[in-house]
Each structure stands twice: as C-alpha cells, then as structure tokens.
Amino acid sequence: MTNKNILLIRKQLDKLDNSFLDLVKKRTKLVDKVLSNKRYKKDIIDNKRIEIIIKNIKRKSKQKNIDPKITEQIWKAMIKAYIQYEYRNFKK
C-alpha cells in the first residue's frame, strides 16, 4: 500500500470520525433527558440495563459481521464515560 492510499483512507476515517461526533452529540442530548428524569444519584447506574445493552451489542455485532470484542470495548468505555458525565451533571 502506498502512502497516497494510506492518506486517502485516513481522510475517509477523519470524515467518519466527524459523523461519530454528530452521533455523540445526539446521544448526549438523550442522556441529558434521561438524567433530568432521575430523582436520585443512586439511579445513575443501572447494571441490569448495562448488561442488556452489552449483550445486544455483541449479538448485533455478530449479525453484522463485526468483531464483537471491538464493539463490546467501545460500548463499555462509552457507558463508563456517560456514567461519569451523569455524576458530574446530576443536579437534585
């Protein structure tokens, strides 16, 4: 693979990253709505829900022929980041 090819692919990756940022913004707005409906800090972590999300992501990843280890790591990191975000922004 030539340097030119790598640069073209990296340009595509950068464009995709910008799309990811748009999705993160949309997701954050939804998390804000959920957070505003939580009455107590103890409601921030819902382990049963997290378990279901990870299980579904792994299943859907396999269906879409994506390495489920990649998506599981991404979702666990994202969930952890949003839990921290909710703790920082909880106002009750």
* CATH class value: Mainly Alpha
Name the helix and strand elements from N-terminus to C-terminus, one letter apiece.
Answer: HHH
User: Can you give the mean pLDDT?
Assistant: 96
Indicate the percent of residues in helices: over 70%
The first-to-last residue Cα distance is: 55 Å
- Share of residues in strands: under 5%
The CATH architecture would be Up-down Bundle
**Rg value:** 17 Å
Q: Helical element count?
A: 3
> Could you give me the name of the CATH homologous superfamily?
Chorismate mutase
Structural class: mainly alpha
Low-confidence stretches: none
**Strands, total number:** 0
**Gross geometry:** extended
Largest sheet: none
Give the total of domains: 1
CATH third-level topology: Chorismate Mutase Domain, subunit A
Task: List the keywords.
92 residues, Chorismate Mutase Domain, subunit A, 3 helices
How does this model look, in words?
The protein is mainly α and 92 residues long. The chain has one domain: Chorismate mutase (Chorismate Mutase Domain, subunit A), CATH 1.20.59.10. It is 79% helix and 0% strand. The protein contains three helices and no strands. Helix 2 packs antiparallel against helix 3 (68-89). The mean pLDDT is 96.
In short:
With 92 residues, the protein is mostly helical. It contains 3 helices and no strands.
